[in-house]
Design brief:
Elements lengths: L6 H14 L1 H10 L21 E5 L2 E4 L4 E4 L2 H4 L8 H12 L11 H14 L3 E5 L2 H16 L3 E5 L33 H4 L2 E4 L4 H11 L3 E6 L13 H14 L2 E5 L12 H4 L6 E4 L10 E5 L1 H4 L21 H16 L1 H25 L5 E3 L11 E5 L11 H4 L7 H13 L3 E2 L4 E3 L6 H19 L3
Parallel strand pairs: 3-13, 5-6, 5-7, 7-8, 8-9
Antiparallel strand pairs: 1-2, 2-3, 4-10, 9-10, 11-12, 12-14
Length: 465
């Protein structure tokens, strides 16, 4: 393994970013007077400052300094149809013009229509809507604990399930033999974090051993069919099917967190393509068509823990903006659109994702830098629009687990985490923490633009290795 010092490169990139974007720099300085680090979401706060956006259409955004930027971040991977899709925006505009769409705090027919559509597409028996993935995973854990009468929650190392206290463990990789075993936030009581068990992703034997070790206190196992923050790594069908079998055998619930994968590969969940039916599933991001909506969906008897018949034992009561009318409308329009046009949308997304992954790898190879992209689901013929860039030290390095892609001994983590985003941003490409996705509004020209931007960035990086 060769360790590279990127400090001089980062200084040069930051200086160029300041020269190119004085307006965004000034706004960021003002923002830091009133907000922690100048914003309200950590991932968006690129060092030394993020571009301040003025427009977002399709596959591109524009910033305060007049740059047109190819955007692969696409709203935290939520914008399957690109920024501000007309099919959704036109319906929202008509609703607002007619006096419907803003917060009402009441119920309407849209919720019923959307719920019926979600259940039909996913196979769930019941669904309840909320506003974020964080809340959805929190409620799902509460439901599982109440239904089973058990306490321990198991997750895979590298899995991000939102900033909620029952799963804030095993997210970040730490050297020194800790790996994914640490707690990810101060302020959490040990009585809570001690009940979070962390297993290894894509390791069937380890999963079986860990579940056996917890025994009859396991309330649920929560898994992403494809890790997002953990490296955009697809679970194998063997791993997911074993998870289903083990949960059934041990009387625990299987929860699939499909926040990223739901409706991205087909009009439903990725787990279904592996033949795996969860007890509960989490949906969001793409579901809202650009509006904030998330959902917990699954078995009627489990969801009933929040219902009147069981005394509402789980306080899944919702928040002020749960099932917001505009979000319900946007989600219904989005789902109807992707279902009706699935034969066109999903093959196109898969082809674009494959082309982007190849363009990135080829561009870095020309500069003598080994780059490998995850995001594909190799064992399924479904295509994938997702892409995350890694820099393994050796060609034979497997990228099948987050333990590999976050280990500095196996991958150049500093290049991926600290350098790549800024190196591409000065080339007018937005890729957050090395991962992004194609949208239906991207095209072959955008793939070419990405490739050329990566070539320029790779040549620059190569001079510092």
């Amino acid at each position: 393994m060769t360790t590279h010092d990127y400090s001089a490169l980062l200084t040069d990139l930051a200086d160029e970013h300041r020269r190119r974007s004085p307006r965004s720099a000034a706004i960021h300085a003002e923002a830091c007077r009133f907000m922690i680090d100048g914003g309200s979401h950590t991932l968006r706060l690129l060092d030394p400052f993020p571009p301040r956006i003025t427009e977002a259409h399709g596959g591109w955004i524009a910033d305060e300094d007049g740059h047109r930027i190819l955007d692969l971040w696409q709203g935290h991977l939520a914008n399957l149809l690109g920024h501000n899709p007309e099919v959704v925006g036109d319906e929202l505009a008509r609703a607002f013009a007619s006096g419907f769409g803003a917060q009402s705090g009441l119920v309407d027919a849209l919720q019923v229509e959307l719920a019926a559509l979600v259940c039909r597409l996913t196979g769930a028996e019941r669904v309840r809507f909320t506003t974020s993935g964080t809340l959805s995973t929190m409620y799902s854990v509460l439901l599982a604990r109440s239904f089973t009468g058990r306490s321990t929650v198991m997750k895979a190392g590298g899995g991000w399930h939102g900033a909620q206290p029952m799963l804030l463990k095993g997210v970040a990789y730490r050297d020194g033999g800790v790996g994914f075993g640490g707690v990810d936030s101060t302020g959490l009581p040990t009585a809570l974090t001690d009940r979070i068990a962390v297993t290894r992703y894509n390791d069937p034997q380890r999963l079986a051993d860990d579940i056996a070790a917890v025994g009859d206190d396991l309330a649920c196992l929560i898994l992403e069919p494809m890790l997002g923050a953990g490296g955009t790594i697809a679970a194998t069908g063997e791993y997911l099917r074993l998870a289903r079998e083990l949960c059934t055998r041990h009387g625990a619930l299987l929860i699939l967190d499909e926040m990223i994968t739901g409706f991205r590969f087909h009009p439903g969940g990725l787990g279904a393509l592996h033949g795996v039916e969860p007890d509960l599933a989490i949906y969001g991001k793409a579901l809202g068509g650009g509006m904030p909506v998330a959902a917990v969906a699954g078995r009627a008897d489990v969801m009933a823990e929040a219902g009147r018949a069981k005394g509402r034992r789980v306080a899944f009561s919702g928040g002020t903006y749960s099932a917001h009318p505009a979000s319900m409308l946007a989600a219904r329009v989005f789902l109807g659109h992707v279902e009706a046009h699935a034969g066109e949308i999903y093959p196109r997304l898969g082809a674009l994702g494959a082309a982007m992954r190849s363009a990135v790898e080829d561009a870095f190879a020309e500069a003598g830098i080994l780059a490998r992209c995850t995001g594909a689901v190799d064992e399924l013929d479904c295509g994938s629009s997702l892409v995350t860039v890694h820099f393994p030290h050796h060609p034979e390095t497997s990228l099948a687990t987050p333990d590999a892609v976050f280990d500095p001994a196996r991958c150049d983590v500093a290049l991926r985490h600290d350098v790549l985003a800024l190196a591409l941003l000065v080339e007018d490409v937005n890729l957050v923490l090395a991962h992004g996705a194609a949208a239906t509004t991207h095209g072959e020209g955008d793939v070419g633009f990405l490739g050329e931007a990566c070539r320029r960035a790779a040549r620059r990086i190569a001079r510092h290795r």
